[in-house]
Write a structure and sequence with these properties.
By secondary structure, the protein is of the alpha+beta class. Helices cover 26% and strands 37% of the residues. It has helices spanning 2-10, 56-65, 85-97, 110-113; strands at 16-20, 23-33, 36-47, 75-81, 101-108, 121-127. Helix 2 links the parallel strand 3 and strand 4. Belongs to the acetyltransferase family. EctA subfamily.
C-alpha cells in the first residue's frame, strides 16, 4: 500500500483512477522512464470484479497514453508473468487498438532473480504506430 501511495504522489500525472458512483473500480500506476522519455512503464493495473468485462483497463491505458505528460511517448512497457492471462489479454487488446507492435522477452528470470520462488517476469514492449493524439 505504501508503494502505491508514493507512486500516486510522485507520479500523479501518469497514474489513473476510475470510479463508478464515487467508488474506485480501476487503477493504473505508471511513469515515464527517467532515462528514456519515449517510454511509459506501466507498473500496475487493477480492475475490481464489479467493473471487469467493460473494457475499463483498455480505456484507462488509452486515456493515460494521451495525457500531456505522455506527449513524447512512443512505446509502453510492462512486465507480465506467463500465467497472467488477464494482463496478456489487456495489453494485447491495447496494442491492437492503437495499431502497435507487441513483443516480449524474459526479463527478471525465475532462477536468476527470484531464487525459484517467483515466475519469470517478461518485459512486454508495445511500439506505437504513431504518437497518440492527446485528449481534448
Amino acid at each position: 500500500m505504501y508503494c502505491n501511495l508514493i507512486q500516486c504522489d510522485h507520479f500523479a500525472d501518469t497514474c489513473i483512477l476510475a470510479e463508478i458512483d464515487g467508488e474506485p473500480v480501476g487503477w493504473i500506476s505508471a511513469y515515464v522512464l527517467p532515462d528514456d522519455e519515449e517510454t511509459l512503464f506501466v507498473w500496475q493495473v487493477a480492475v475490481s470484479k464489479k467493473a471487469r468485462g467493460r473494457g475499463l483497463g483498455s480505456k484507462m491505458l488509452k486515456e493515460l497514453a494521451k495525457r500531456e505528460e505522455c506527449e513524447g511517448v512512443r512505446r509502453l512497457q510492462t512486465t507480465i508473468t506467463i500465467d497472467n492471462d488477464a494482463s496478456w489479454a489487456l495489453f494485447g487488446r491495447f496494442s491492437k487498438a492503437i495499431g502497435g507492435k507487441l513483443k516480449s522477452q524474459p526479463y527478471f528470470k525465475r532462477d536468476d532473480h527470484f531464487d525459484g520462488r517467483h515466475a519469470t517476469e517478461h518485459m512486454v514492449t508495445i511500439e506505437f504506430a504513431e504518437v497518440l493524439k492527446r485528449a481534448a
